[in-house]
Amino acid sequence: MKLVLASTSPYRKALLDRLQVDYICASPDIDESLRANETVENMVVRLAQNKAEAVAATHPDALIIGSDQSAELNGRPLSKPGNFANAVKQLQAASGKRIIFQTGLCLLNALSGHIQTACVPYTVVFRSLTNEMIERYLKIEQPYNCAGSFKSEGLGIALFEKFEGEDPNALIGLPLIKLTEFLENEGFSVLGETEI
């Protein structure tokens, strides 16, 4: 079966490239709003599944990967900042605190209708940040399209005291450990079919 990533995110694409499998990307067009009384964990799993299902309409014979992510600070979701001023506020609020990134994952076998979902958390503990550190970081890296206002795979690493979690790829937006497990459940082994 062919593999489809239900995303146009360059970060998710770069992560999936690490598995060295053939796949295509398809853009899901869904409403990504948080529902009333919905937890962040439930929201990211629902959106990951909605993305996979939206793409299944045009790829009825594929394994479709959907993923969604949101960050939580003090139990409240953090969005992508969009601009410098909002990013400064997010990083000021995060200084010295823990942010939990909840990454929803869905693998949909469009042919059989079989769905596997999971929420993979990953925690980032921030150092105490001065306004000068925050502004300098933001001017260099400009992570305005990243939830939490940083790129851990870049200079953002200097903002942190430590990471806590099972799969660091979840922090960037696609939990590869859980994904490879889901793929194997569908008979798609990223190592088993490869000749060395």
Could you outline the blueprint of secondary structure elements for this entry?
Layout (H helix, E strand, L loop, with lengths): L1 E4 L4 H8 L6 E2 L14 H17 L5 E12 L2 E3 L5 H11 L3 E12 L5 E12 L4 H11 L18 E6 L3 H4 L3 H10 L11
Parallel strand pairs: 1-2, 1-3
Antiparallel strand pairs: 3-4, 3-5, 5-6, 6-7
Helix pairs in contact: 3-4
Give a quick summary of the entry:
This protein has about 200 residues and is an alpha/beta fold. It contains six helices and seven strands.
Percent range for β-strand residues: 25-35%
Q: Sketch the topology as an H/E string, one letter per element.
A: EHEHEEHEEHEHH
| Top CATH class | Alpha Beta
Parts with pLDDT < 50 across at least 5 consecutive residues: none
The second-level CATH architecture is: Alpha-Beta Complex
